[in-house]
Design a protein that fits this description.
Blueprint lengths: L1 H9 L14 H11 L12 H9 L2 H16 L2 H33 L5 E6 L2 E6 L8 E4 L8 E13 L1 H4 L5 E3 L18 E2 L4 E13 L5 H10 L7 H32 L2 H15 L3 H18 L9 H8 L2 E4 L11 E6 L4 E3 L2 E5 L6 E5 L10 H12 L8 H9 L7 H4 L4 E6 L7 E7 L6 E8 L1 H7 L4 H16 L3 E11 L14 E9 L6 H10 L3 E5 L4 H11 L20 E3 H6 L2 H8 L4 E3 L9
Parallel strand pairs: 8-18, 18-20, 19-20
Antiparallel strand pairs: 1-2, 1-3, 3-7, 4-5, 4-6, 4-7, 9-10, 9-17, 11-12, 13-14, 14-15, 15-16, 16-17
Helix pairs in contact: 3-5, 4-5, 4-9, 5-10, 8-9
Length: 615
């Protein structure tokens, strides 16, 4: 017991943030006043007066007001009052819908008040993320949301989920650089940069803030969206055109009747009244009311599906669209990994799942259609699962570790039941040199040997395991087969280490024995396949636009029924994506004519950057 306790004590490492002093509080306060808070510009809320003016500027409502005025002039106060009531009714609907949507959005925005750990005056303290300034030294830990764009100056096994910016469902490895490094857009080259809005999956780091607020990559995306010019919908354009034409006809009839009546009978006043009466009969004053009411009913029906509609024009656009562009991660898929397959070189088991989104916790739970690991086909497969679990953190944020542990939380293979008496000794975190994680455990208080459980990239695990040439070939074939199914594959191995010896500094010094592999999938969201099928039946073309890899995008597209189109010339070259897909790099190299042609024949767009979406 004393030997195990000594190993646990020596395994502890100092906190990296203790090495940095950061800005002074006074300097941070001065920079905050000079440059403003670390916030994105909120969308402008429309005042009551602005909403009313916006409604009255529409030609349809100008027509109602004009007709109402004419009825007053003719002395028909009942008709005038009815038309004015129509105007007030439409204004009431517009105001109520705008206010209801804004209140819902404000409630969602107020659920979270983000904070950040920052080093100031040599001490690590927690402040509001909005108070961060350029030059601040920020501490990132597992589970944190990155509050701004920063360059890492110290990192330890940092994995970051950048799916918000890139659509890439797999975490990205990050390493420390220099404080003077330049910020580049999210890509394979941005290895020492963390971006606002992304999440730390595992590891820890210290970074220097380079950009805040709208200057961040996330802020640039918001600015791009804000600069999109709002266009009038097809129905509005057609109704406006019809109203203008009818108004011209009405005015022309009024003039003709006025002149003819005046010349024939010499009664100018009666001629004017007769001409105005004819004009009123020609003008379609019912159109604005009918259009507004029906669109409002559509917005109400959609709200029953938990969809907020800020402007009624969106209902009309929805009914007239011919192409639906959808993201992959979090839209077609659940943005969470689940365990799909466990395999050794001689056996395998694939699980059947029913994915369900737990709205309360925000976690995805996977229910096994078969019994959990205690009923797997062989003891070897159970051992693969056991050591894969032992190599995980106890409260992980890595999506694959979460999937692995949550799969067996209630069965006989649950970690709590199987390893209640085991003592955690040391973790060897993931790093770029050794693409694997390992954990050292003492099975009992008086154990003489530590159990070392490790998992990682198959090629990396292969380097540290003693395997014959035929076994290596079998592992590569197994890994290739699983990856071709769009699965993320981790190899699992184990080792032993004498308790009396100091633990090595890195995991490569252990003598590992290969156990098997575990493969994970990013499952399709419930109802997506039916939704895509219904869209196709309705004559809609469904297009996937994602930042994820081309192979993964193509696999998901095949599962949900998004048709892959013919091969493009750009995709026929060696190393290019599969037929039917177009990558962001290819989009960047195309001119407008080539891109227009490609858009008509491509259903899957992969590795697309946010700014390319609006190209």
């Amino acid at each position: 017991m004393e030997a195990v306790s000594a190993l646990v004590a020596t395994a502890k490492s100092p906190k990296p943030e203790e090495e940095f002093a950061g800005l002074s509080t006074a300097e941070a306060r001065r920079l905050l006043l000079e440059n403003g808070p670390n916030e994105l510009t909120k969308s402008e809320q429309h005042s009551l007066f602005g909403i009313v003016v916006g409604v009255l500027r529409e030609p349809m409502f100008l027509l109602l007001l004009g007709c109402s005025t004419l009825y007053f002039m003719l002395g028909d106060y009942d008709e005038a009052g009815m038309l004015l009531s129509f105007v007030l009714f439409i204004i009431f609907i517009a105001v109520m819908q705008e206010r209801r949507t804004e209140k819902a959005l404000e409630a969602l925005h107020g659920l979270v008040t983000p904070t950040a750990r920052v080093i100031r005056d040599g001490f690590c303290q927690e402040v509001k993320a909005s108070e961060l300034v350029v030059g601040d030294t920020v501490v990132l830990r597992e589970g944190d949301c990155v509050p701004c764009d920063m360059v890492l100056i110290n990192s330890s096994s940092l994995l970051v989920d950048e799916s918000l910016l890139t659509g890439e469902s797999a975490p990205v490895s990050k390493v420390s650089g220099g404080a003077d490094d330049l910020i580049v857009a999210p890509s394979d080259k941005a290895t020492s940069t963390c971006f606002a809005g992304t999440y730390v999956v595992s590891g820890k780091a210290v970074g220097v803030v380079k950009f805040v607020g709208e200057a961040t990559q996330l802020g640039k995306i918001g600015k791009t969206l804000a600069d999109i010019r709002e266009e009038r919908t097809l129905v509005h354009r057609e109704v406006d055109y019809l109203i203008k034409q009818m108004a011209i006809v009405g005015v022309a009839c009024c003039v003709i009747v006025f002149v003819a009546y005046a010349l024939l009978y010499g009664q100018v006043t009666q001629a004017a009244l007769t001409g105005l009466s004819l004009a009123m009969g020609v003008l379609p004053e019912e159109f604005p009311v009918i259009l507004t009411v029906f669109l409002a009913i559509g917005a109400l029906r959609i709200s029953y599906k938990n969809v907020l509609v800020r402007k009624n024009a969106a209902i009309e656009s929805l009914s007239s669209c011919t192409v639906v562009c959808t993201d992959k991660t979090g839209t077609l898929t659940v943005n969470s990994m689940v365990l799909d397959t466990v395999a050794t070189l001689g056996a395998s088991h694939t699980f059947a799942y029913e994915e369900a989104l737990n709205i309360t916790s925000g976690d995805v739970t996977a229910s096994l259609a078969h019994a959990p690991a205690d009923r797997l086909a062989s003891a070897e497969l159970q051992e693969v699962i056991e050591y894969a679990m032992l190599s995980c953190q106890r409260h992980p944020h890595d999506p694959m570790e979460v999937a692995l542990l949550s799969t067996f939380t209630s069965g006989c293979m649950s970690w709590e039941r199987a390893h209640a008496n085991w003592t955690f000794v040391k973790e060897y975190p993931f790093n770029r040199d050794y693409l694997m994680t390992a954990c050292a455990w003492a099975p009992t208080e008086n154990a003489t040997l530590l159990e070392i459980a490790a998992k990682g990239a198959p090629d990396s695990i292969l380097r540290f395991c003693k395997m014959s040439a035929s076994q290596e070939q079998s592992l590569r074939c197994l890994t290739t087969e699983l990856m071709e199914r769009g699965l993320r594959v981790l190899a699992v191995c184990k080792a032993k280490w004498p308790v009396g010896q100091p633990l090595p500094q890195s995991q490569h010094e252990f003598s590992f024995n290969f156990l098997g592999v575990v493969a994970f999938t990013n499952p399709i969201r419930s109802g997506v396949v039916n939704a895509v099928s219904e869209a196709h039946e309705a004559g809609l073309r469904v297009v996937m636009v994602t930042g994820d890899a081309a192979d993964t995008a193509q696999s998901v597209a095949a599962h949900v029924g998004i048709a892959a189109s013919r091969s493009l010339g750009a995709a026929e070259t060696a190393g290019a994506p599969a037929a039917g897909t177009l990558t962001g790099r290819q989009i960047q190299e195309m001119d407008s004519c080539e891109l227009t042609s490609a858009l008509t024949s491509t259903s899957v767009f992969a590795r697309v950057l946010p700014e390319q979406v609006h190209k």
